[in-house]
Every structure is written in C-alpha cells, then in structure tokens.
Design brief:
Length: 254
C-alpha cells in the first residue's frame, strides 16, 4: 500500500492508498521540533499493521522535511519513496516568476485538480494561510493569491482586542449577531466566504474572460468544511486533494 504524507504548517495529513482508492486517512498536528524517532512513533501508532510498500510525501516545513527524510532512511530504507522536491517529475509547468518560491503542496494540488477536471480550475486551500492556486486549461500552475488563514485571523483578533475571544467556528443564528460570540462567528464564516467568492470571481474572469463560469472551483484543506456551505462560488469539495496528488506524483516517478 502507498503511504502519502502531507506535512503542512499546522497539520500533517497521512493517507493510505490501495491502488487508486484511499482506504485510510489521519490528521495530526505538525510540530517542527519533532525528531525522526518521534515521527516514527506517531506514524507507526496510526498505521498499526498496515503494510506500507511505497511512500510519497511533501512538506512546506523545511525542518519537518529534514526529519521526515531521516525517518524514512532509518525505518523504511527499502521502501520506494518519492518526496516532492527539485528533480521530481510532476508534469506541472510552473508559470511563475520564480518557480523555487512555489510550495510543494501547491504543485501537488495543481496536478490533482487537473486530473479531476481536465480543464481550468481554482484550488482554494484552507490551511494556515488560504491559498488560491490557479490551474490553466493545460494543467499549468499560473500563480494565484495568498490570504491569512481563518485560525490565524481569529487568533490575531483575540490577541489584539481586549474584549474579544476565540469562539467555536459554527454558523450563528443569523448574519446579524445578537451577542459577541455570534458577531464573531458571522464575521469569520461569512467574511471568509465573501473573501473567497470575491477573489474567485476576479481570478476566474482573468483566467477565462469569455466564460468565467466554466472554471471549476475546488475547496480543500482542514478548514474547508467550515466555509464551503456558505460560499457561492465553490462547486467542489475535495478534502483529500493533496493526498491524491501525492499518489499521482509517485506513479509518475516509477
């Protein structure tokens, strides 16, 4: 079975594929201070007796990538492994001023999105930051937009405003909050949904001026489920998009 590992700034997502079918997935917090041995304890505890015969991984955290590489070399030395880094075949052309600045997760998401829709798309990845990744009709990564993530914004608001605090991220009774908690929930959920819709419409109009409605908008990331139902432009929710891309990249490098 193929083990896919996506190490993000806040969370790490692991998935196990049997062929092209995702059979298990887990989400744990990312700690850049974890050593290779600590990573193995966590992963082995989740995997139990799952027979890992191949591994594909990516990371946006350099320290975590270093320890991941050390862990794989120490505990799975004979298992075929692909880590998304320079020299790996992805099939994704990076039409970006400096391709070295493009995070591995954005490349992986581009490949996965194009494999699903086979046309122009916008991937909205709700993570530590909210990433808008723009995919051309040929599967190229064209660039996009980066915005503060939901949890970062909420943390900053609670830290900088004396009478505001963290709240549960659920929909309030009405967009018009009748108390501080509901007002915060309205601002966060509907505010971010509005941000997504506004950016998506502008990007789609630039990507396909003659038919912006033809652009597929795919939401992914750990916080996507909070916003998707309140968005007017997101038409597909793929929580395992990055894991799918990691599987595709592994196959391309065999």
């Amino acid at each position: 079975m193929l083990l896919a590992i996506d190490i993000g700034n806040t969370n790490t997502v692991l998935g196990v594929f049997d062929g092209d079918r995702l059979v298990h997935s887990w989400r744990v917090k990312t700690d850049a201070r974890n050593t290779a041995d600590e990573l193995m304890l966590t992963y082995k505890g989740l995997l139990q007796d799952v027979p890992v015969t191949a591994i594909s991984g990516c990371s946006t955290v350099p320290a975590a990538l270093r320890e991941l590489r050390a862990m794989l070399g120490r505990y799975w030395p004979g298992v075929p492994t692909v880590l998304v880094e320079p020299g790996i075949k992805t099939g994704v052309a990076l039409l970006f001023d400096n391709p070295k600045e493009v995070g591995a997760d954005r490349i992986v998401n581009t490949l996965a999105a194009f494999s699903l829709v086979n046309g122009p798309a916008i991937v909205v990845d709700f993570g530590t930051s909210t990433n808008f990744d723009v995919v051309s009709g040929k599967g190229e990564f064209l660039g996009g937009a980066l915005a503060p993530g939901i949890e970062i914004s909420l943390d900053a608001l609670a830290a900088r405003a004396a009478q505001l605090r963290k709240v549960e991220l659920v929909a309030p009774r009405s967009p018009i909050g009748k108390n501080t908690v509901e007002a915060l929930q309205s601002g966060i959920l509907y505010g971010f949904a509005g941000q997504v819709d506004g950016l998506v419409r502008r990007i789609a109009a630039s990507l396909v001026p003659e038919a912006p409605g033809s652009v597929e908008v795919i939401a992914t990331g750990g916080l996507a489920s909070l916003v998707v139902e309140h968005s007017e432009t997101v038409n597909r929710h793929e929580p395992d998009l990055t894991l799918l891309g990691l599987r595709l990249i592994f196959e391309r490098n065999q």
